[in-house]
Amino acid sequence: MDELEDALSQLDLSYSNGLHSLQQGDSTEISGCISCMIKALSENGSEAARFILDHGVLPKLCPLLVPACKDVAKVAELVAELAKNEFVRLPSVEAGLVQPLVELMSCDQQAAVKQTCRALGNICFDNDPARDAVQSLGGLEKLLAFLQSLTTSQSQVEHSNMCAVGCGFLLNLTNTHESLQTKALSLGAVSVLEDILRQNFDDTSVCQMVLLCVGSLAESEAGKESLHGSKFAAELVRLMDTEVGSDLMETILELLATLAEHDGIKLQVVQAGAATSLLRLSCKSEDENERDGSVLSKAAADLIVQLLTGDESMKVLYDSGNGQVLKAVMSSWLPSEREHLQVAGVLAVGNFARNEENCVQLVAMGIVEPLLNLLHKHDGRLGAMNMQHGVLSALRNLAIPVANKPALLKAGVLSAVLGCLYVDMSPVQFKLLGTLRMLVDGQESTALQVGKDAAIVKRLVQLGGVMEHAGVMGEASRLLAAIIKHSRSEEVVSSVVSQGGMTHLVSMAISEHPVMQNEALIALTIAATVSPESAVESLTSAEVTAAIHRLLGDQNCDPHVQCNVMALVSSLLHSDVLYAEFGNKGVLDQVRQLCSHGNQLLSQNARMVQEKIQIRGS
């Protein structure tokens, strides 16, 4: 460190001799001082940086950061090396280094501009005061003008290196800084970065830096919109088709995943032909490099699944059942021994199965069997939640079309799904209950099979009381309502009553969702009709009168819901106990008042019930 101390003393001496001495004096001495400090930093790192900082060097560098200084590039390099250390960055701002550095961006000395970009980039790293200073001095405009100039002078010496350094500065300047990101977008940063990427496909370091910059800008919705208005996604797909290393490919896939959060960009990526490369990567052999193969394979498969979440992009990839992704899912992914491909496969099927036409076609193509095989294969396995959740999601979608229900039941879907009924994972339970509800819908024999099984009904009632997961609780109650509605069986009603399920249906009737309210009210009305004795006693203890009073008195309640309440009241008038409760708690008065309601259907239903009340009373 003695040599460094001598250099600092020499700099002090030159500084004390004045500005002219520094800029125009013995160039060899100044150059030697600067070189000595750079060498000390390379050898001793933060220790040397701390020594230089404590010696008060930073303010003394400001006069040297001008084009007139013969060693300006080397001085800027010194600042860049110093600013690699976090503790130097804020003092650099306080010492006034930002202004002369920003002004140097406009000089015609290529080496000085390069080192200036490095210096400002390092100073701005995770340093908002520096970023704000650069912004206030017009530094962003100067930087983008510099980058733009690089796109029109590709023959320039060290062109690729200059591009990488400039993009690095842009990244550190704008990263996580909302106002600078917004300004960069408005100044055309995306277009400039797109040009740089297109011109430097063969330079990994430049491509990597451009992608990092774009990834930072794409964090905001404005950034994604700006990228949607460009051809950047298509350029990424084109880059993906070239020979790139695994690290750069991983960055490409990560950026595409970020951009694909925008549905419009999903479609652009698909239309650019990304599926072919992604499928190739998804099947990348782990034998080539275990980490690289598995990481890229999973990232590619995950990206395909993400692209399928967009309606338009899914339609293009499905291609009326002829798409290469669907073929790969059925021939390679679902039968694969690699679990991430299996999971991606079932998620892809679930995304394809988002409209009736696709669902019917998928079932006809034989998609159910491989899904059931995976469900059986992962039954009871630790960590199988993603697989079970994915398979059940796909089966639920496939079970929605009426035409598919018989085929799924014949394939054994009901027994396979019921086999997962005791899985103790809420996400799986939620999808399982939804799948069962779709299978029961409109299928009397299935509703009877489920509803007559006391163990199944008992489990459904248990799940209907899972307060920790409202979704599971709601789906279990909806399934109880469904088996009553579609079976219309006294035996099924008695089973639900004996297991305590009527309480869940009454609670469901006063939920916040009109669809669920109607389902519950219809099931309660059927129960009171087909099994009046068992249902009435259970409904009384479940405080059905209070629920009815609440619904009829709610002025914001959907009139269709209140019409179903009227049907329930009508079905319970035969009970002396409930009829007395209706009178004592004001339900009979509510019915009479609703006879003059403005909604014609509701008032008509109310009058019909009122007539029955009058007959009952006489």
Question: How would you describe this structure to a colleague?
Answer:
The radius of gyration is 36 Å and the shape is elongated. The protein contains 41 helices and no strands. 48% of the residues are buried. The longest helix is centred in the N-terminal third of the chain and has 28 residues, at 27-54. The chain is mainly alpha-helical and 618 residues long.
Task: List key phrases describing it.
mainly alpha, elongated, single chain, 75% helix, 618 residues
Quick description:
The chain has 618 residues and is an all-alpha fold.
Give the terminus-to-terminus CA distance.
111 Å
Mean pLDDT: 91
List the total number of helices: 41
**What structural class do helix, strand and pairing data support?**
mainly alpha
Low-confidence stretches: none
Topology overview:
Layout: H1 2-16, H2 19-24, H3 27-54, H4 58-61, H5 72-82, H6 86-94, H7 98-104, H8 110-124, H9 128-136, H10 139-151, H11 159-174, H12 178-186, H13 189-199, H14 204-217, H15 221-228, H16 232-240, H17 246-259, H18 263-271, H19 274-282, H20 290-307, H21 311-318, H22 324-333, H23 339-352, H24 356-364, H25 368-377, H26 385-398, H27 405-410, H28 413-418, H29 426-440, H30 444-451, H31 454-463, H32 470-487, H33 490-498, H34 502-509, H35 514-530, H36 532-541, H37 544-553, H38 559-572, H39 576-584, H40 587-594, H41 600-617
Helix pairs in contact: 1-3, 3-5, 5-8, 7-8, 8-11, 10-11, 10-13, 11-14, 13-14, 14-17, 16-17, 17-20, 18-21, 19-20, 20-23, 22-23, 23-26, 25-26, 26-29, 29-32, 30-32, 31-32, 32-35, 34-35, 35-36, 35-38, 37-40, 38-41, 40-41
